[in-house]
Amino acid sequence: MQSRQQRQVLSLPCASISFNFLLSISPACSSSYKSSDFHVITANTTRAGGNLSRLDVDLSILALNNGFSGTGLQFELASLDYSQNSTWFLKANTFEQDANGGLIASKEGAQIDYEMKTALRVGEEKDLNVYTVAFEGTPSLLGYSAFPEDYEDKPIFDGVLIHYRTTPGGGFTTADQGKNLVHEVGHCRHWVGLFHPFQGSCDDLDDGGDMVDDTPPELEPTGGCPVSNPPKTCPGENQPSSIFNYMSYTFDACKNPFTPGQITRLRSQLDMFRGIEI
């Protein structure tokens, strides 16, 4: 893992903090920060081999900013690197698919994930590292990352992996508007500390579910974009289900804002685990 001292120093406007994407937080004081990387992993130089263009990356940042508008977080590209490594591209994946199509832990994939991040990860807990890969063998997997609270003990695992085809216009059916990156950065097992609305199903309500009051708890994940027939929330809930929320499993076309409660939680999580005050 490279340190900030090894990276180029950028002069940034007031309130920027160095990330894979530079995370701009206001208000704050002007200062200089060091750059870090957005990691594009490829099998070869073709688009099908994961070779995203600078425009693909810029559009991803635009989608990320749209998703986090109103939260106090905005992102800028600090720097970008490419690694041609077919093993990383295809097999960096802590999951594998079982006989029933579900996802289970993969020891081999986790080791490859570790090797890739050891070689490429930059910075500290305030640095968001994003890796684009292909997740061979798990066709339903769009992305994953590590718990923010695990950074202290396992810093090398920190960051977000996304399927390269979920970038805007990337061609992943139902998930090519760039909102998958918003979801993964938002998730509790991901970067800013949010759970899914269906966290714990209806059996975990005493433990707080997703820890947010204005996202009604749901029995199970919501797929598709069921506007005309939304799924039911847990018994006793009078609010509509969160089919339009970024933290749902709905199609990109359905995903929209974070709720005020989610914004409050993500701010507290960033402060608690990443030392970022908004």
Written overview of the protein:
- It is a single chain.
- With 278 residues, the chain is of the alpha/beta class.
- Helix content is 21%, strand content 17%.
- The chain has five helices and twelve strands.
- The protein is globular, with a radius of gyration of 18 Å.
- 42% of the residues are buried.
- The N terminus is likely disordered.
Keywords:
globular, disordered N terminus, 12 strands, 5-stranded mixed beta sheet, 5 helices, 278 residues, alpha/beta
Measured by DSSP, the beta-strand proportion falls in 15-25%
Number of strands: 12
Tell me the Rg in angstroms.
Answer: 18 Å
- Determine the fraction of residues in helical runs and give it as a percent range: 10-25%
Biggest sheet descriptor? 5 strands, mixed
Order of helices and strands: EEEEEHEEHEEHEEEHH
Mean pLDDT across residues: 80
Structural class estimated from helices and strands: alpha/beta
Globally, the shape reads globular
